[in-house]
Amino acid sequence: MTLQLSKLAGMIGDSPTLKINAQARALKAAGQPLIHLGGGEPTYPAPQAAVEAIEKKAASRKIKYSPSSGTPELKQAVLAYTLKHYGRQYETADVIVCAGAKQALFNFLLAAVDPGDEVIFPAPYWVSYPDMVRLAGGTPVIVRPQQGIMVSAQEIKAAVSPKTKAIIINSPCNPSGQIFPEDFVREIVEFAERENIFLVMDDIYHQLVFDGARTPNPCAYAKKGENLVIINGVSKLYGLTGLRIGWAVCANQDLIKAMGKMQAQSTSCNSDLSEAAAAAALTGPQDCVRDMCAVLQENRNALLAELAAIPHVTVEKPQGTFYSFADFSYYNADSQTLAQYLLEKALVAVVPGKAFGLDGHLRISFCADRASVVEGVRRIRWALDKTAPNEIKIGDKLVTRN
Ligand SMILES: Cc1ncc(COP(=O)(O)O)c(C=O)c1O
After folding, report:
1. Separation of CA 155 and ligand 1 centre (Å)
2. How many C-beta atoms surround the C-beta of residue 44 within 10 A?
3. Where do the DSSP E strands lie in 58-203?
4. Is the CB of 286 under 6 A from ligand 1?
5. Rounded to the nearest 10 degrees, how much is the dihedral formed by the CA atoms of 392, 394, 399, 401?
6. 101 CA → ligand 1 middle, Å
7. Which of 106, 127, 200, 236 has most ligand 1 atoms within 8 Å of CB, for mutation?
């Protein structure tokens, strides 16, 4: 008899980004001059306050289980952050701190979704949403824009059925860098509250915005807001991806309690060290966020200038995040094949749009250093431009296109 894995395990496919990432890692390890523009991880250093908090906590030699749903200090810091950025005073019992925004989302889905329930989100979407919804027993309902890369509120509303349990909106959006406009947010917040549908705002990038843009505040349009779940975390904001700290805030203590039960029976609690560091980052000096946005904005501008030099490629200017989502369908409508070609020929890793639910596009990150961003897009141009010389030198390597 063979050992059988669960049906659940069989339901979840391999991550579409996994293969490209594994190949990229292997090329790098083999000493190839690979440029990785596929990442979702800021390279900037951890804020000093976070580092000092870890050192202090470690020096106390007390690294123990912490309260399951987060330490009081970190919850206070989250409440202050939420008041500052959303203008709403939540209570301690409205907050749960989790191992990243991802666990916060997952806890929400486990606590809210029954088998057969539908969870709506627009494409392009963060790669994890469909499988997370499936793991929770729900059915992902993907809304693709009729035009461009952003759905309208009307398109979202048209996807609602009696089975709709939740809508997830990620703004600014991974992978497009687009911010959903004020009218969209108002309409969806008011609609979801009226219809008793959970509205999850995945706000993990809400402060990573450019050109003075602001991410519209959902709390401005919520009345009681018992259906409004705001997800955030320190991964993108401070580049603290390794801490694994995120949170959910909602004026629905039954929901937060239920999410807490899911957490208590899975990870038990968050890392004590990480919680101390996250609280310090939130309450410490915030100029790092402004500085980082300035660097990312310059990177974005450099990326757009290089992309503009590639004929037939179009891109909506990212208003936030550190991703661009460019339409390369002129060259190949199959983004997976195109990404593979670019990896092999130009030694540049990017993520196929297919992984985000919109084929024909490539997600090109600009959180790497600027020189890599510029060089990476130049290599892509070379690989696609049949009129360019057939051979170029990449590092010490002579690369041939055909
Ligand atoms: C849209 C979105 N939500 C959530 C997450 C997860 O963030 P965390 O590292 O806090 O789990 C990511 C990470 O890439 C993301 O892009």
Report:
1. 25
2. 15
3. 95-98, 118-122, 139-143, 164-170, 198-202
4. no
5. -60
6. 6
7. 236
DSSP classification of residue 137:
T
Domain-wise residue ranges, the chain:
7-45+287-400, 49-283
| CB of 233 shorter than 6 A to ligand 1 | yes
Closest ligand 1 atom number to CA of residue 170: 1
Distance between Cα 235 and ligand 1 center (Å): 7
Is the separation of the CB atoms in 125 and 144 below 8 Å? no
Looking at residue 179, its pLDDT comes to 98
CATH classification (class only), 7-45+287-400: alpha beta
204 Cβ closer than 6 Å to some ligand 1 atom: yes
Where the chain has pLDDT below 70, the residues are 16
What's the confidence (pLDDT) of residue 332?
97
**Secondary-structure percent of the chain, ordered helix, strand, coil, rounded to 5:** 45, 15, 40
Say if strands 348-349 and 323-327 run parallel, antiparallel, or are unpaired. Answer: unpaired
Tens of pLDDT, residues 178-220: 999 999 999 999 999 999 999 999 999 999 999 999 999 999 9
Does 241 sit in the ligand 1 pocket, CB within 6 Å?
yes
pLDDT value at residue 16: 66
Query: Domain spanning 49-283 has what CATH number?
Result: 3.40.640.10
